[in-house]
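Quick one - inputs below.
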Amino acid sequence: MPDDARPTKWPAGFAEGREDRSALLVLSCLRGLTPRKLLEMAARERSAAACLAAVRGGRAGSDADREFAGELDPARIEAALSACGARFVPADSQEYPATLDELADPPAALFVLGRALPVPGAAVAVVGSRSCTDFGRDLARDIGEGLATRGVCVVSGAARGIDAAAHEGALAAGGHTAAVLGCGIDQAYPPGSRALLARIAREGTVVSEYAPGVPAEPFRFPARNRIIAGLGRALVVVEGAKGSGSLISAEHSLDLGREVFAVPGAVHNPLADAPHALIREGATLIRGVSDLLADLGRSGGRDGEPPPVRLDVTLAEQAALDRITGSVLPEKVAREMGLSVPQVIPLLMGLEMKGLVRSVGGRFEPRSRRG
Amino acid sequence: MYGRVVGISLVGVRGHPVVVEAHVGRGLPSLTLTGLPGAPVQDARDRIRPAVESAGLEWPLRRIVVNLSPGNVRKDGPGLDLPIAMSVLAASAQVPGDRLARFGFVGELSLRGSLTATPGVLSAAIAAGRAGLDGVVVPAANAPEAALVEGLRVVAAPSLADAVGFLRGTWTPESAVAPETPAAPVGHDVDFAEIRGQAQARRALEVAAAGGHNVLLVGSPGAGKTMLARRLATILPALSREEALEVTQLHSVAGLLGDGLVRERPFRSPHHSVSTAGLLGGGSSYLRPGEVSLAHHGVLFLDELTEFRRDAVEALRQPLEDGRVVVTRATGSVDFPARFTLVAAANPCPCGYEGDPRRHCRCLPHRVQLYRQKLSGPLLDRIDIRLTVPRLSKQELLGESLSEPSAAIRDRVEEARARHRHRYAALGSPCNAQLPGPLARREARMSQGAEDLLAQAVDSLALTGRGFDRAMKVARTIADLAGSEEISAEHLGEALSYRMSVGEGGLARAG
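Output:
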């Protein structure tokens, strides 16, 4: 494919011939061969086929890899690839996102399912905690929806929690979303996201640097995060505890010179730890999707602001609603309104039924209004 | 050489007169018991001779047969020691017969001949009164409870020698006096006035007390679930004399009675390792009332509901439904009254911190799901009021004023219950929670606003049929508390806030 080849970090003609492509398929299955090692080897050996020969000859890679590479049949991988409907995108193809080349260890090839990968500059990564709060989930959904409405592709990792909510928001808005996997392209991991992944494969893009059949293993997820960071022109961290994987993604984004946004929380909220740490390091604080869109320069977007919802809120309910900021106890609302608790509870109940507040652990908190 | 004495044995919580006959005849010295004695009664055989001899009386060195009649009922409990000893003394002509026939005898003997405190004396005294006896001879320690039975002479005998002295006319007992029943209910050792904050939970408990509703409290460790549950007993209406007698009888049978009448609503909090027999009643030989019966007319608190054995929790359905427990053994079945208010407490998730603003929940989602499946189930259907108790921060606690005292809340509860009794006088239903669902629906008088809200709730909260009935009953109670015959939208709105489905969908608040 010399016609659609474009300059990359890889040596010219690295994956040009059929043989090289088959070799690259085998190389992408090897556990011990990190992209960084492969890149170094490619500089020496010049082509994928030569790299594979080096591995098989014991001149590179681990013993386990040599054994494994000997057994692997590229035709079988090809078959598995077409069985799951994915396509093979080596680093020199036109579909391979140029932004990934900015990584220190770019994947030699990607496996892609569904729509074409987003064009550079038209994607934003949204990441956060798996065990998020309802508040975080709503916010991630809003952000996903807001980005997608304005034609921005939402990139995330398909994990439960914030990831899933961001994908769902984008899908709900009928926009583009891309899920980056930390396992083989044909694996539905995590199992809880199976339905979501199937939907993204149909309506968006699923992408992985791992060939079909590669299992999910802990070390693959931090590696996957660099692709999430690389695909987006910016990264949004919604919620994350201390030591969260979101911090790794943010690290990659900063290395790549991408903008990092973080949604703050209450100072004692353990899930606000990662966003707060990032804000202290210079990430941009956003209070919601409108801040993000304004900063990205897309506030005027395609559809403009969603129309306000008309709800029959009584005056008393509105008064109660005005007093629910953050997470408050019903007796606090009652005290501020000069009412008794039994008088306030029905008001809160009404607001809850109208979807304006939510009860979490005996406290009430506002829900963002959505159209 | 024949003697006849009336003793009283226990079947469950009821006393049954037992005729104890003794025959002293020729043969090698021995004592044989016939007439289906249970293991504790068999025990008496070896205890009685030393007791009689220690009392300075003579044990006939002949062949003695003691028969307990009726012969088809198994006799249990240590209270038959005294009548057996008396029958032998009567058969050997050591006591005169005139008083013997007019008194019942209950009591356990020690080897020194003294009468020790015996469980179930109140039940025995009631049975003696019903059997038309003049009085009962009981251990002195049990005299106050026996004296609760009106019109029955109670002879409080410290020892066997004194009981014999009474029959011979050589010893006169002090007349036992029933403890005074004060007009006002006595104080509990806890009070709502000690609680800061938790206004919503306090309100929910007030509603629970007024309607007799069972309660589920969900909250993080340290939120105050136990503290709140303990105080529910203090706002229930005062025990009536009949109720107090029932409770006293149960506690007496279980051997837990202090002195005299129980005047406070009991609060029982069994540990989660409790066995089914411990919870419901039973035991291998002598059937004891379980925790559900000890909580009769009071509060049964199950802390850490998910830690209780599944079979024990499932077995609670019968008492919750019928207000009694039937314990069946090969020798027959016994029923114990068990009408209690259930308060169950649980953490929101295995680690306990889900929804807590200051601690991070570290549970995996499928473990939380499993946990909640444990929480749900048929027991949950019988819990009308479910709510989450937030863990308050120090600042929040300091910002709250102390609650009103239990007595003030109890006044409102009693008014609401009176309103209920007046409305359903014909049914004899004690409280709203026990109304059958169809009746609660038919009898509900709702304002237009409440009708609208209900229609809305069925849609937006996905209210199920059962959830609907629960909301109606609780709304009825709230209206009773407000002194209103009509259920308004506010009443229904509050009732709807006490719902929470603890199913696979999580602790979502739904039908």
